[in-house]
Amino acid sequence: MPVESAASPGYGQIVCITGAGGFIASWIVKLLLERGYTVKGTVRNPDDPKNSHLRELEGAKERLILCKADLLDYESLKEAISGCHGVFHTACPISDVPEEVLEPAVNGTKNVIVAAAEAKVRRVVFTSSVGAVYMNPNRSPDVVVDESCWSDLDFCKNAGWWYCYGKTVAEKAAWDVAKEKGVDFVVVNPVLVLGPLLQPTLNASTVHILKYLTGSAKTYANAVQAYVHVKDVALGHILVLEAPSASGRYICAESMLHRGEVVEILAKIFPEYPLPTRCSDEVNPRKKPYKFTNQKLKDLGLEFTPVRQCLYDTVKSLQEKGHLPVSTP
Q1: Which comes out higher in pLDDT, residue 265 or 10?
Q2: For the chain, where are the alpha helices, taking DSSP H only?
Q3: Under DSSP, is residue 41 helix (H, G, I), strand (E, B) or coil?
Q4: What distance in Å separates the CA atoms of residue 35 and residue 70, rounded to the nearest whole number?
Q5: Among the listed residues 223, 208, 207, 215, the one whose alpha carbon sits nearest the alpha carbon of residue 281
Q6: pLDDT at 1 (0 to 100)
Q7: What is the predicted pLDDT for the residue at 37?
Q8: β-strands 224-229, 255-258 pairing
Q9: 75: exposed, middle or buried (C-beta count within 10 Å: 0-12, 13-18, 19+)?
């Protein structure tokens, strides 16, 4: 049953979420509706079938409004954010083409914050990325990556990591604008996000797993990656909106695995798929994980889902959505 009780955290609260049809955003919408919030979700086209999954969520009929908006169209954002108590800014282009990343990432984020300031919202929660935190070749391996760390812009640019570059520039610009406008601004920095898809389309992080299962990747990279469950990321966003004490940045990560460990776990759970057994780099030593802390989100009460469960939920979802054939061993 939809939540309508005055005891529910979101009762009587209206929040806006940009890019509502995305992987993380769809989960935030789902959890907000479950908590009794009224949600105004911005999408490019409310009638697009790819947003139909949002209308099917519990409580959507009563408390979800899809608004046509564009990050670079200030008036459309202003209209969507008007009357809201809080804003989640999740919309961001994922591309390694600089022009496709920088303007929407930087100017779009500024537009959201300015519109939020004008609407006098209580708090803005921004979805950044660990890509804005840890990309720094000069950091000692013994240093624990925490919320005080920032990615090195020159390193990101020279390496062609335009997504990380864009996220870092956008987050820094956002902090400046929020301070200038007096907006209560909090940031969540997720690592690579896995878990069940609510939307019908594939997203970049699940493709990362899918390629190992389909046999398109014959080897795995000599690389490490931190992972987190999409439901935990969504709940983390809501916790930092709701907690009066929340401030600053929040790294959202469960654990870190070498790509070899990822394929080993997948092979144990799903032995029927042609998972790679060889590393593409058999010359250099195996890459070691960096150290990080997720204590700030734990202090708000977030209990992280183990990475093995993240991988299992991702594969089951890919099967259910028809992206991966279900075969028997």
Answers
A1: 265
A2: 23-34, 52-55, 60-63, 74-81, 98-119, 153-159, 162-181, 204-214, 230-242, 259-269, 295-299, 307-320
A3: strand
A4: 27
A5: 223
A6: 42
A7: 97
A8: antiparallel
A9: exposed
Q: 290 is written with which tokens? A: 């960096």
Q: Under the phi-then-psi rule, with left for phi > 0, alpha for psi from -120 to 50, and beta for the rest, what region is 295?
A: alpha
Positive or negative, the CA dihedral 149, 154, 160, 165 is positive
Instruction: Tell me the C-alpha to C-alpha distance, in Å, between residue 247 and each of 171, 184, 315.
Output: 14, 8, 35
Type of residue at 157: K
Closest CA to 111 of 131, 132, 126: 126
Which sequence positions are flagged as catalytic?
167
Number of other residues whose CB lies within 10 A of the CB of residue 323: 18
User: Are 21 and 50 spatial neighbours (Cβ–Cβ below 8 Å)?
Assistant: yes
Residue 56: other Cβ atoms inside 10 A: 9
CB atoms within 10 A of CB 285: 7
Quick one: tokens of 263? 């394929």
What pLDDT does 59 receive?
96
Q: Indicate the pTM of the whole model.
A: 0.95
Which pLDDT tens digit goes with each residue over 189-247? 999 999 999 998 898 889 989 999 999 999 999 999 999 999 999 999 999 999 999 99
- pLDDT higher than 70, residue 48: yes
Task: Give Cβ neighbours of residue 233 (< 8 Å, ≥ 6 apart).
Answer: 24, 27, 188, 190, 193, 252
- Integer CA distances (angstroms), 52 to 33, 64, 103, 294, 319, in order: 16, 12, 28, 34, 20
Q: Is 113 helix (H, G, I), strand (E, B) or coil?
A: helix
Full DSSP string of 117-176: HHHT-SEEEEE--GGGTS--TTS-TTSPB-TT----HHHHHHHT-HHHHHHHHHHHHHHH
How many residues appear in the chain? 329
> Could you report the per-residue pLDDT of 70-93, keeping only the tens digit for each?
999 999 999 999 999 999 999 876
